[in-house]
Q: What sequence folds into this?
């Protein structure tokens, strides 16, 4: 398997992103909302490095099923989301691909009454974006390849890898 981003590179960039986030929020309380399941490892590592008053919540927003690598109908579930009215939200996701999911989830959080929504993504896949969307915090720009590891999966496997790898056909 090709290692695109090593575990050490991920760790260092997550540290840098935490510092960027703390500067952006300047001591304000933040509700971190992670998009499950891909964001789990990224969110856990990042929030331990953020020195701000934090609440943590999760939602699901998925358009991939099983072994498909092509997105389908987006389904958002926010059963685990506390009241966010008037709160500053830091939405975290593993990857910005087409931009459709993040744009829809941001609109959903604003509809629920969030005071503000900033977005952090571990990866930004270049050349795939279909809707105009600019995240506030980006870990790494990556080429248009199917990646796994550090929370990203293929058919619910490979999430546990400490690095970002490129899945080759047949692996």
A:
């Amino acid at each position: 398997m090709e290692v695109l981003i090593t575990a050490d590179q991920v760790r260092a960039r997550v540290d840098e992103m935490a510092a960027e986030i703390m500067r952006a929020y300047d001591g304000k309380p933040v509700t971190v909302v992670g998009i499950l399941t891909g964001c789990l490892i990224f969110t856990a590592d990042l929030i331990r490095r953020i020195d701000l008053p934090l609440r943590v919540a999760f939602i699901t927003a998925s358009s991939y099923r099983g072994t498909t690598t092509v997105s389908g109908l987006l389904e958002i579930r926010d059963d685990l989301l506390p009241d966010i009215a008037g709160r500053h939200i830091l939405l975290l996701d593993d990857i910005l691909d087409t931009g459709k999911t993040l744009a829809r989830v941001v609109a959903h959080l604003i509809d629920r009454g969030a005071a503000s929504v900033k977005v952090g993504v571990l990866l930004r896949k270049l050349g795939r974006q279909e809707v105009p969307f600019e995240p506030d915090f980006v870990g790494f720009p990556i080429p248009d390849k199917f990646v796994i590891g550090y929370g990203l999966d293929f058919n619910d496997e490979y999430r546990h890898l400490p690095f970002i790898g490129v899945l080759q056909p047949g692996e």
Remarks:
- The radius of gyration is 15 Å.
- The chain has one domain: 8-143.
